[in-house]
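Annual report, structural modelling task.

Input specification for the adenosine-5'-diphosphate complex:
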Amino acid sequence: MKKILFVTSEVHPLIKTGGLADVSSSLPKALTALGQEVKLILPNYHGLKLGQIPNVIALFRIGRHTVQLLETMLPHSSVVVWLVDCPEFFNMAGNPYVDAAGNAHPNNAERFALFCRAAIEVAMNRVQLNWKADVVHCNDWQTGLVPALLSLEYQCPTTVFTIHNLAYQGLFTGLTAALLQLPGQLLSPDGLEFHGMISFIKGGIVYADKITTVSPTYAQDIQTPELGYGLEGLLIYRDEDLTGIINGVDGDWNTEEDPLIAQNYNSSSLNDKVINKTALQARLNLPIDEKVFVLGLISRLVEQKGIDMLLDCLPELLTLPLQIVILGAGDKEFERRLQQFAAAYPHKMTLIVGYDEALAHQIEAGADVFLMPSRFEPCGLNQMYSQRYGTLPIVRNTGGLADTVVDTLPETIANHTATGFIFNDAHAGTFLEAIKRATLLYSFPEVWRQLQVNAMSRDFSWQNSAAQYLELYESIE
Ligand code: ADP
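The model returned the following structure:
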């Protein structure tokens, strides 16, 4: 059994801004189910949704700051959560990274440096808890200083650093090094320095024993200039220690028990899925039509997700006999342009701006295909939810999308492995062609049904992924 300290800046359902929160909840639970002892450590943000008042279990100093360590449980689990309480850094409005106006908190470097130092005190058993970590598993730039600073410690635990999205690196001006009093030996270009700046994510990439990303293809993608953000050389250098492990899917996404959808179904009762289609049409004031081809999209509306490609497709797409349902929020210009199309074609397209968990489930259950034309995608979740829901994903050939969707080709139809549609180039034309390919196959109900069955029988469980992480922990000398 390993003692694992899982260091993260967000965890569902306590606080969430993105996919990291889902992984931080599901992976520790799945590792616990595999018999490991996982403690999760997180800043005690002002906005945490805590069911009960946590207990104070330790008190210590980091530089001139007094830190309390609080203990609570991850809801519906036996995972212990330790909260690093330092009100001057974490008791502020906004989300963990930005203020209410959407600007990065000006002291983010100090905030997350303190969090990292607190995690190290805990991992090294220096806060009188009588608990020392065997493995410290860090996630994204907010935790990058942990492997860096731990590398200077005697008899330190082994470290794993997971990159959930390399687009965010925690870059701060060179002056930050002095402000944070970082040891000089960490500051060279072989260390945290990055073109005159300090890069927190380099702390993870340079110093962790093992590095992971959230899909094997993304592990390759970040070793290219297109997606490496200038870190590709370093990532190539560390290639032997870099692996991709696909995220699993949460149990809430289960067509047989989903309380949020109109009609439960499974791969033997796929005829019932259409009830979800008509319920969705009714809810969104679209013409009710069991036969019409319904395309769904749920996403942050940002360039990463290929929303511009979709916009370029829409003039032609909307001449076809289909319906498009989009749920998302993000870039105001994307929202405005999508809304223009929805207003011009009210019988064919609906845009719901906002974040709506229930509607997300209803779209997954009610649509025939799910659009995910991402320019890059470290792992992606919706393409996996879609397959579980028998809603075939149309995805670009990148990152986790490439690893989790099997393109529909004559041979994959024949051997019952096809689960969706993949296109290569990040162009509206190739995306449109993939949608047309799907439209054509939709007119062959028996083939379509088989594709749905193939998709629904894929195993995207966390058990599977957690077993791979455990193997990785055990592989470190
Ligand atoms: P990313 O983390 O890059 O945004 P993922 O596909 O990994 O993309 O995860 C996105 C998660 O957020 C999924 O669970 C998706 O269903 C959910 N989501 C995104 N936008 C919305 C929205 N507007 N309403 C409800 N759920 C959303």
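The chain has two domains: 3-248+463-475, 270-456.
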